[in-house]
Design a protein that fits this description.
Blueprint (H helix, E strand, L loop, with lengths): L8 E2 L7 E10 L9 E11 L4 E5 L8 H12 L7 E6 L4 H6 L23 H13 L5 E4 L7 E3 L2 E5 L4 H14 L3 E5 L8 H7 L3 E6 L8 H18 L18 E5 L5 E3 L4 E5 L6 E2 L4 E6 L9 E4 L4 E7 L3 E2 L4 E8 L4
Parallel strand pairs: 4-5, 4-6, 6-10, 8-9, 9-11
Antiparallel strand pairs: 1-2, 2-3, 3-5, 7-17, 8-10, 11-19, 12-19, 13-15, 13-18, 14-17, 15-16, 17-19
Helix pairs in contact: 1-6, 4-6
């Protein structure tokens, strides 16, 4: 049976030269709007033949540095500045972005756990299916710009996820090097096949992501890192001809190469309560070291329950919210990588 086509549609002609700022429309019939659509912002900038890059943010709606960066680039980049094509989606999960939430308020869908999606599934899965079948196959590289959202805070970094294709991995590393993030990550432990990187790898597309801030705030340093890195990468690919126009800073004098290898890098809350961390973001920690305690303010006489690191490395991510439920991720580590 032939795969069903997406129900999403757009007035944009992906193959036309010029700059088109419009929407992808997802049919959404509800009581207040019988023939309505959800309008997902889409910009296509094209000038002749050349590589295609997808620039995407708002995979999670409460992650803002990438959203700010892509709004800037949509306004600033003109067709004469490029050779090839840019497909820009600053709020891919539009309902989540408008709600300032990680997941969609319509179907509780997490876009980064929805691939490959399906044309007759709920809203978030329809967006994933459109990306998977219509947008991503047009591209050589996919920039998926993340941060920690409301619940997490990160040491900012850019990253690539590894695939089983050595040639694709080499292409990925070249673009990551060009991005020029002071902390650059090779993320090996990605066991969930629903993640966006799985769509990229199926389509032989470089997937470059990153975590550029957190706490559902807009980190100015994260915005600059994201903006400068995207510009450098597009120039490296030959898409951006006029990089000097964008007045980016110099690349870092030194890059710290890191990796995430296994489940033991993660720390989870052992009980529900109020979590008190004993280590700070960016600290180097050791296996067996105390990370923090869960306190019980509803039963203050109860002894707090400890949580320990299960591995050694840098505390590159920690939970922002103080209240936890059992099983909440309160931290994860990264370790130095000997060679890029």
């Amino acid at each position: 049976m032939a795969e069903q086509k997406s129900h999403l549609w757009t007035e944009v002609d992906y193959d036309a030269d010029g700059k088109q700022i419009s929407y992808v429309h997802l049919p959404h019939s509800v009581t207040r709007s019988a023939y309505g659509t959800l309008a997902i912002p889409l910009t296509v900038i094209k000038n002749g033949k050349g590589p295609t890059a997808l620039l995407m943010a708002g995979n999670h709606g409460d992650e803002y540095e990438g959203q700010v960066t892509l709004c800037k680039l949509i306004r600033e980049i003109e067709p004469k500045d490029i050779k090839g094509r840019l497909i820009i989606m600053p709020a891919a999960n539009m309902p989540a972005a408008m709600a300032g939430a990680r997941v969609s308020p319509i179907d509780d869908g997490n876009l980064n756990r929805a691939f490959p999606g399906g044309p007759n599934m709920s809203v978030t899965y329809q967006i994933a299916h459109y990306l998977d079948t219509v947008v991503v196959p047009k591209c050589e590289v996919w920039f998926d710009l993340h941060s920690g959202g409301g619940s997490l805070d990160y040491v900012p970094f850019a990253m690539v996820s590894t695939s089983n294709d050595a040639k694709l991995n080499r292409r990925s590393m070249e673009i990551l090097k060009a991005f020029g993030s002071p902390v650059s990550m090779v993320w090996t432990y990605l066991p969930d096949s629903r993640l966006a990187h799985s769509s990229a790898h199926r389509n032989n597309v470089v997937y470059l992501g990153g975590e550029f801030g957190g706490t559902a705030s807009v980190n100015p340093e994260g915005v600059k890192l994201t903006y400068d890195g995207v510009v450098r990468s597009l120039a490296h690919m030959g898409i951006l001809k006029n990089a000097a126009k964008f007045k980016i800073g110099p690349p870092p004098a030194k890059v710290r190469w890191m990796e995430l290898l296994r489940q033991s890098y993660y720390v989870y809350a052992p009980e529900a309560g109020l979590f008190e961390p004993k280590a700070r973001l960016g600290d180097m920690v050791k296996k067996g070291q105390l990370f923090g305690h869960v306190h019980f303010v509803d039963n203050p006489g109860r002894e707090p329950v400890p949580a320990y690191f299960k591995d050694t490395g840098m505390l590159i991510c920690k939970r922002h919210y103080g209240r936890v439920e059992r099983g909440d991720c309160v931290a994860h580590l990264a370790t130095d990588r000997k060679t890029p």
